Each structure stands twice: as structure tokens, then as C-alpha cells.
Amino acid sequence: MAITYSFNFKSFIFPLLLVLLSTHSSATSTSITDRFTQCLNNRADPSFPLNGQLYTPDNSSFPSVLQAYIRNLQFNESTTPKPILIITALHPSHIQAAVVCAKTHRLLMKTRSGGHDYEGLSYVTNSKQPFFVVDMFNLRSINVSIEDETAWVQAGATLGEVYYRIAEKSNSHAFPAGVCPTVGVGGHFSGGGYGNLMRKYGLSVDNIVDAQLIDVNGKLLNRKSMGEDLFWAITGGGGVSFGVVVAYKIKLVRVPTTVTVFNVQRTSEQNLSTIAHRWIQVADKLDNDLFLRMTFNVINNTNDQKTIRGLFPTLYLGNSTALVTLLNKDFPELGVEISDCIEMSWIESVLFYTNFPIGTPTIALLSRTPQRLNPFKIKSDYVKKTISKQGFESIFEKMKELENQMLAFNPYGGRMSEISEFAKPFPHRSGNIAKIQYEVNWDELGVEAANRYLNFTRVMYDYMTPFVSKNPREAFLNYRDIDIGVNSHGKNGYVEGIVYGHKYFKETNYKRLTMVKTRVDPSNFFRNEQSIPTLSSSWK
Known about the structure:
The structure is a single chain. The protein is of the alpha+beta class. 33% of the residues lie in helices and 19% in strands. The protein has 15 helices and 19 strands. It has helices spanning 9-43, 62-67, 92-104, 159-169, 185-190, 198-201, 223-226, 228-233, 272-282, 320-330, 346-353, 389-401, 415-418, 447-463, 493-520, and strands at 54-55, 85-88, 108-112, 131-135, 142-145, 150-154, 173-174, 208-214, 220-221, 244-251, 253-254, 259-267, 290-292, 294-300, 306-316, 342-344, 376-383, 405-411, 434-441. The strands form 4 sheets. Strands 12, 13, 14, 15, 16, 17, 18 and 19 form an 8-stranded antiparallel sheet that branches. β8 and β9 (220-221) form a beta hairpin. α1 crosses α3 (92-104) and α9 (272-282) crosses α12. The longest helix has 35 residues, at 9-43. The radius of gyration is 25 Å and the shape is globular.
């Protein structure tokens, strides 16, 4: 009896092709990394060799180095795209070599200072192009000169470190920047930077007098050599679109040796909607020395029913008696009393505002460990007209329908209204009552949970449409939000950039930013999903 053998060509060749393609892809990635690494070592300054500063996925320390500055756990999943290399730069020459070699080998470069980019764009990309990360955390020197009232601050320093080093030398100097001490200077300053001193002194970028930047040719520039247009662009337009900011020179501001803080709480049962309506009427008109924030979240009351809690964390550059007198005159609805107030130094107020217990040593500001680490989503809006009592009541009801909602209203006015919207790329000046921060935090990991909570945030954002700015619906660059537009950086890159660019910068500033970009980085080497495109928009 004859035995017949049949051969299924497709069942054999297709798996073989998959194996070959997979092997080729892996080998290609490895060879790119090897060539890139060799280029870096060849171009490194012999005085500052790259010994131990390069981490590939084959290195056992790679996961810990990558994860050390991931501040949003949405972007720490197994499915999250990973860099082919991390460079933990110790010297500007390491960054210069990275720029030149990345251009040679057509790699996408990411720059991470503190890892607080809300969409993870400092260490993640949706591009299919291989990418690497330049981690700036070692470049953290801070040189404070009280005599000149200035400080040079490297991009890898944190805000907590900046505040601590200033307070080491003076109890009557400060700097206007954010309340979270673990935020990195590089991204925070370059995107605008705001905090409790904004109504008195404006934004971080309004108090920056010089900078050091590595450009697309690997040259280290300062304000004079880069020119005023590029200096303007990296003080509010996002440094990563134009180069790698190595350091900023900041102008310190003066504060009293004693300031006053409080954080009173009011709930819906305590006429919160009336208080909120009055806040929106007066918050931007109060004394410039007063920063009175208003935040809402959902809690359960004594009857185990959902209610809205309002918190009013406040900083006043003066004593408690003057503060209570001021509020009794302009905002009596809040009902603040002397017993609510605490007098302390400005550096202690930084700890207070970050929810550290009273009496926490100021050295806590040097910790780089976040107080909370979880997945989250943040969005932003600007309020230009008052919101009625009924409007707030409807907002509160919507918050209770959804999960984990938190809304923070940050007051504008004061110095912010005195600075031209064209002075810096940040345009949100006169005419704004407040900026809204939407925040949703969750603990469950995984894509399914993320999509669920992201949807809650988007539903709340959509509901707020009647209450906020229009044409464009403005947004804050430091509150990165890819929901409002992404750029593929193809032939339509300029037009795609308008979608988010007008929201972050408004029309005139966006156009100026693209002109600067086209001049200093015509090949669009420095880019991400929301970077400033060139006028031609194609990467050659």
C-alpha cells in the first residue's frame, strides 16, 4: 500500500516568515542601538566620558531607571512603548553628543526633567520611530546669589530643591512656581510655571532672565547667542520643541518673613454654591498679596449620601489680622476667622500647601519621592465670565454622577492682568477670572480601567463647555492634554498644530512660535505629539 505525504506550503512558510521578520526586527533594533551607542562614545568629550550613563533594555537597571521618573502610572504598562536607550546625562556634552548622533541615526529624542508631563510625552511616544530618552535628573545644580537676587538652576532640579536652596540663604526671598515639590524645573519653567505667587509676581517665565540651551546643531547657547525670539519661545512655549534647556537663570522675588495660610472647608450643606458664586465674582479682584484657591471633590456626608466638599487653600503675604480684615470686607461669605489662620515663614507655607503636616522639617522638600503615585488624567479650562449659583449647583450634580471628580479653580487677576498676552508664549492674561484644573485619580491598573476613568474626565469637561472660554477653548500647556489635538508631523503638520496650538498659545503667539521653530529647527528634529511644527512641517 502506497503512503502519500502531503505538504501544506502555507502552514510552513507563514510561521517561518514571522520568525524571520521578528528576528530581523530585533536584530535591526539592536544594531541601531549599537551604532547609536558607538556614535555617542565617539563624540563624547574625553574629559566627560559616558561611563555608566547608557542604559539599554538588556541592562538589568533599565526598568528601574525608566520607572524612576514615571509620575503617571497610565504610562507604566507592559504595553507602553519603551525607549531603545536611556542616557542619564552628567554633563551638557552628553546631550550635545546625543543630539548629533540622533540626527545621524534618525532617532526620536525625548528629554525628561522630572517626568511630570501629564501625558508622559517626555518618555513615551506613539510614533513607530525608535526613540531614546535623555534623563536630566543628574543635572540639578542650583546656585543662589542673594546679592544679585538671582539663581542659576539646572533643568533636572526639582521645585522643592529650588525653594529649599533659596530659603537656605534668605527667609525673605522666594520664586513664583508650582506647589508640587517633585516637579522638574525643565518642563515646568519652559511651559509657563504658575503657583501661589502668580497674582503678586506673575508666572515663572515672567521672572526668568537667561537660559542655556543646546540647539539642533549641538551648540550650547545662552540668551545673547540664541537671540530674543528663541529665548521668548523657550519661556512659555515649551523648550522641547526648540532644543534641550540645560539651565535657567531666575530672578528671585521678595516675600515677608511672616506669611499667613489657611485651608477652610465648606460643604453643600453650608451654602457652598453661594460661596462659590461669590468667589468667582471676587477672586481675581482681591488684593495682589492674596492667593485664594477653590477646589471641589465628592465625599459622603453623615447620612452616607454624596455631597460636594469645597476647600479654600490660601496664601497671604502678610499677617493674619490683615488677612481676616481684608476677607471680612471683600469675601465675608467664606466666614474666615483668626482661629483658621496660621502664621509661618514662606518656605513653611510651601510645605503647608503641599499637605505636609504642620512642623514638617523643610528638608522634606529635597525628597524626590512623590506623595502619591497612581494613574490620573488632568485637563484645563479658563473662566472669563462669572458662574451663577445655579450654575455651580448643576456642576456639583454632574460631579456626583461621575467618579473621582476633582475641580480646582485657580484665581487670576493681579500681576497676571498687567502683563501683555504677547510678552511670553503663555497668553492667558487679562480677562481671565480663573483657570480650572480637572483631575481624576484612580488606583486600578490596566487599559480597561484607564479608559473608564478617562471617559469620566471627558464627560465632565464636555459638561463644562457653557461655563468656559470659547473660540478657542483655551488650555494650559503645562497641563498637557492630547485630547485637544495631536500632530503626526506630516505635510499637514502646521494645520494639525493649530488645533492645539491656538488653545495653548492663541493665534498670534502660535504663529510666532512656528516662525521661530522653522528658523532654529527647520528639519523638525525636536518634536512630540504636541510640539510646535515648522511652517513646512516635513521632517527631512
